[in-house]
């Protein structure tokens, strides 16, 4: 992938950009082999990769500069702004949106937030695209509601320029810290959820609900989990840290009883909506802490699927799973190091198979799916 920002030394987010993709993938596999060196793995599946560029379905842009000449991108460690609207990781469909947003910021009088001076209103622009229909969700992260009326008044112009914007909202983040969003979300459109579809499974994207950034590889990840789970004798399943329900919705059958747990209510609303569309009545999604939910249960399912944040599932949940011993565990991880640590705390299990998913090309990061079987 050619990147003018990288060549000019202005952005180093893609640390491995100068390495061929095959070399990158080999290095990631070597890293995963090293992490699991002390554990017996019955089967190593061929790693899965996707496009080298234009693959991201979302952009998280720091807004800096002036109201007349805003910059959309990031801040370097020294506070220097960098415009990233030409980043080749974004699809071509993002360019006209960025182009229209810059004059709109001036029209709406949304002064970019100055971190050093703690002044201004507009902190971030968050853009997400659906692969299903090309519809987009745009979120303005503001310091307060003081410019909300101005934004509303200018909005018809933006909507006329960009009819692909199906959802527009304002998030209020008043804290002077590097926190992406606050608790308050104000919708400026009637529609509040963006329809998506992976492998024939309807999914929904709402503000404040996590969704994978690489749709091609994410689709393969979900499809693989479905293949693995449906080959097992499973009639009762938990989907912990379930997000919008991608894994559970892919794996479920009309006969299967499934409980999905996720701390974020917005994500649970998405998962519930998908289950209703699919007509799956044995699926139940709840907004709870996954560890607290699991450790309070006595009825152990046939399979527990976990997809935790980077910190992993932790000692308490590992201890519970070891004691309750469900026949199968499927572990999806965005941090193989914490996953390997967790597996060390599940001594009663063997690794049946492992597969790497290159969700983040040009970086050292990757996702991994692991099937654990009770010995």
UniProtKB/TrEMBL annotation:
Keywords: 4Fe-4S, Iron, Iron-sulfur, Metal-binding, Methyltransferase, rRNA processing, S-adenosyl-L-methionine, Transferase
Gene Ontology terms describing biological process: rRNA base methylation
Annotated catalysed reactions: uridine(747) in 23S rRNA + S-adenosyl-L-methionine = 5-methyluridine(747) in 23S rRNA + S-adenosyl-L-homocysteine + H(+)
Residues that coordinate or bind [4Fe-4S] cluster: 3, 11, 14, 87
Active site: 334, 334 (nucleophile)
GO-annotated molecular function: 4 iron, 4 sulfur cluster binding; iron ion binding; rRNA (uridine-C5-)-methyltransferase activity
InterPro entries linked: 23SrRNA_MeTrfase_RlmC, MeTrfase_TrmA_AS, MeTrfase_TrmA_CS, SAM-dependent_MTases_sf, U5_MeTrfase_fam
HAMAP family in UniProt: 23SrRNA_methyltr_RlmC
Record's function text: Catalyzes the formation of 5-methyl-uridine at position 747 (m5U747) in 23S rRNA.
Protein name as annotated: 23S rRNA (uracil(747)-C(5))-methyltransferase RlmC
Upper taxonomic lineage: Bacteria, Pseudomonadati, Pseudomonadota, Gammaproteobacteria, Enterobacterales
């Amino acid at each position: 992938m050619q990147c003018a920002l990288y060549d000019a030394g202005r952005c180093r987010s893609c640390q491995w950009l100068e390495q061929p993709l095959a070399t990158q993938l080999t290095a990631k596999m070597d890293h995963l082999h090293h992490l699991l060196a002390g554990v017996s793995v019955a089967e190593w599946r061929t790693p899965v990769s996707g496009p080298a560029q234009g693959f991201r379905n979302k952009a998280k842009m720091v807004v800096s500069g002036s109201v007349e000449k805003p910059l959309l991108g990031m801040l370097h460690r020294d506070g220097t702004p960098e415009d990233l609207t030409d980043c080749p990781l974004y699809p071509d469909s993002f360019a006209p949106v960025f182009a229209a947003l810059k004059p709109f910021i001036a029209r709406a009088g949304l002064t970019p937030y100055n971190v050093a001076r703690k002044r201004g209103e507009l902190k971030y622009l968050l853009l997400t695209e659906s692969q299903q229909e090309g519809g987009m969700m745009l979120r303005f992260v503001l310091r307060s509601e003081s410019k909300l009326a101005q934004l509303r008044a200018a909005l018809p112009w933006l909507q006329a320029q960009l009819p692909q914007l199906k959802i527009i909202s304002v998030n209020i983040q008043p804290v002077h810290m590097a926190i992406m969003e606050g608790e308050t979300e104000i919708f400026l459109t009637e529609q509040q959820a963006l329809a998506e579809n992976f492998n024939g499974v309807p999914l929904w994207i709402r503000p404040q609900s996590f969704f994978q950034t690489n749709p091609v590889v994410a689709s393969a990840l979900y499809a693989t989990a479905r293949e693995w789970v449906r080959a097992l004798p499973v009639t009762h399943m938990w989907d912990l840290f379930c997000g919008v329900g991608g894994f559970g919705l892919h794996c479920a059958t009309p006969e299967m009883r499934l409980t999905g747990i996720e701390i974020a209510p917005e994500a649970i609303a998405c998962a519930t909506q998908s289950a209703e569309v699919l007509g799956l009545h044995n699926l139940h999604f709840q907004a709870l802490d996954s560890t607290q939910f699991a450790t309070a249960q006595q009825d152990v399912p046939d399979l527990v699927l976990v997809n935790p944040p980077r910190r992993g599932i932790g000692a308490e949940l590992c201890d519970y799973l070891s004691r309750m011993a469900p026949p199968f565990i499927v572990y999806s991880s965005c941090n193989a190091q914490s996953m390997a640590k967790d597996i060390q705390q599940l001594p009663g299990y063997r690794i049946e198979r492992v597969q790497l998913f290159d969700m983040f090309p040009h970086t050292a990061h990757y996702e991994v799916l692991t099937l654990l079987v009770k010995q």
